[in-house]
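Fill in residues.
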């Protein structure tokens, strides 16, 4: 029995629930990845993300070859392309792992309907989450809208062990390869072929091998001091596995099992607290995934009703200054330049720049959310949307009016200005006091070519609070 396994955000062989389940039915499995023009032609797709995805697919193709099979590539709308390929190969079943995003869920329904119309059975699984949606609920049986009780509930639940890697597969015959080509299978294109140019280095090398190596490296070193160092952007104190998780280059069960083993091997309470803190960050990802599944309207707008018609000022010049890292606030500008150059930004800095855009520049959070997706190599709808709504105070947050002061954030998390110097060339020779406060004499600014602050934080904070109060009282 020939089975088609449709890869999406699970670009790996090991710890893959759907693929392992398919293997229990038959060894005659061929993988497929469909390049969806409706996704690739959107205006919020980052070149870094496409480049990383193609790199993951290259390694995945090699993994299939080692097992004796193939990973085919299609370029078309999935309901048409997957159905045509499955029919051409006389597949009796098509397997895939489920997703939580609104577009993915609608797309999957169309693919399922098209396949079942032709008598092809569809089998789906939850692979990208520790707990599938609906299994972590409040006492009243409702989905959580606050993180802390979600974490407490989730942490008490048993976690599934990683799935073992496959041993061997039976690939396509010569006749089947011809049929696959006639059904639309193509050679894997480059990111450039798809219209995306990314010539900078990656935060993490694409693929399953590099992701597992990074996890091992992190759990042998930085995870033990994660709690103390995770907020300092000049220190490499985080795992940088977010992109690998977004594309499923590593399984979430694998990550959790390694952290549990690491926790058991800790020699101090401080180390155990650090490991648990990282586990809590992993569950933040889970929380946002569950939230988007149960509240798909989050994709388009605010969770809190008072923000659905908030009077954002939306100054285009201010937005462009923010995008380019030219606001005159060094910590904000350093973070934006890091994003533009690397396709990644430290999490503490993501909160700082998001608060600055929404609370200082009073610009709609959706502008920033989209810009992040246009740049981030790890851009994930649920996490990005959740983070932006948290920062804008429009989302699921028990403290809805949190405002970050760029100066106090700099003093606390980049006190010597190391991070600022790394990303703002024109400020490299300045004393830390100038860097963290942003209070650089006008003549010095003119000499080095760095802009004056485009707004006054204190004034803008008062203005935002007044707008918020007025909307709240309506």
């Amino acid at each position: 029995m020939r089975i088609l396994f449709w890869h999406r955000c699970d670009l790996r062989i090991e710890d893959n629930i759907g693929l392992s389940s398919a293997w229990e039915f038959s060894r005659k499995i061929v993988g497929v990845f469909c390049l969806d023009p409706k996704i690739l032609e959107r205006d919020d797709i980052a070149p870094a993300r496409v480049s990383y995805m193609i790199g993951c697919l290259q390694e995945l193709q090699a993994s299939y070859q080692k097992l004796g099979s193939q990973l085919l590539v299609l370029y078309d709308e999935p309901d048409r392309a997957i159905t045509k390929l499955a029919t051409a190969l006389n597949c009796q079943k098509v397997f895939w792992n489920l997703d939580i995003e609104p577009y993915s869920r609608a797309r999957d329904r169309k693919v399922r309907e098209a396949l079942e119309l032709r008598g092809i059975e569809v089998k789906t699984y939850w692979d990208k989450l520790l707990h599938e949606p609906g299994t972590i609920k409040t006492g009243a049986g409702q989905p959580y809208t606050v993180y802390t009780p979600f974490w407490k509930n989730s942490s008490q639940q048993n976690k599934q062990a990683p799935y073992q890697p496959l041993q061997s597969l039976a690939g396509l015959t010569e006749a089947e390869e011809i049929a696959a080509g006639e059904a639309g299978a193509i050679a894997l294109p480059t990111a450039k072929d798809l219209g995306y140019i990314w010539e900078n280095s990656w935060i993490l090398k694409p693929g399953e091998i590099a992701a597992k190596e990074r996890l091992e490296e992190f759990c042998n070193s930085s995870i033990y001091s994660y709690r103390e160092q995770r907020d300092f952007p000049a220190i490499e104190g985080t795992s940088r596995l977010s992109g690998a998780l977004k594309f499923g280059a590593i399984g979430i069960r694998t990550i959790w099992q390694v952290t549990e083993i690491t926790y058991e091997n800790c020699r101090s309470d401080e180390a155990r607290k650090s490991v648990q803190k990282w586990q809590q960050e992993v569950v933040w990802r889970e929380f946002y995934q569950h939230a988007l599944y149960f509240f798909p309207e989050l994709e388009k707008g605010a969770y809190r009703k008072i923000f659905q018609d908030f009077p954002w000022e939306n100054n285009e010049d201010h937005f462009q200054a923010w995008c380019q890292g030219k606001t005159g606030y060094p910590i904000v500008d350093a973070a934006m330049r890091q994003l533009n150059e690397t396709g990644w930004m430290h999490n503490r800095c993501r909160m700082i720049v998001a608060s600055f855009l929404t609370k200082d520049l009073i610009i709609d959070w959706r502008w920033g959310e989209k810009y992040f997706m246009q740049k981030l190599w790890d851009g994930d709808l649920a996490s990005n949307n959740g983070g932006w709504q948290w920062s804008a105070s429009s989302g699921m947050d028990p403290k809805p009016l949190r405002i970050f002061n760029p100066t106090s954030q700099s003093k606390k998390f980049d006190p010597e200005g190391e991070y600022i110097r790394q990303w703002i060339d024109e400020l490299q020779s300045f004393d830390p006091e100038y860097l963290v406060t942003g209070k650089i004499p006008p003549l010095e600014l003119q000499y080095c070519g760095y802009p004056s602050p485009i707004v006054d934080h204190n004034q803008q904070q008062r203005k935002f609070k007044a707008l918020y109060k007025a909307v709240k009282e309506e």
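The chain is about 50% helix and 5% strand.
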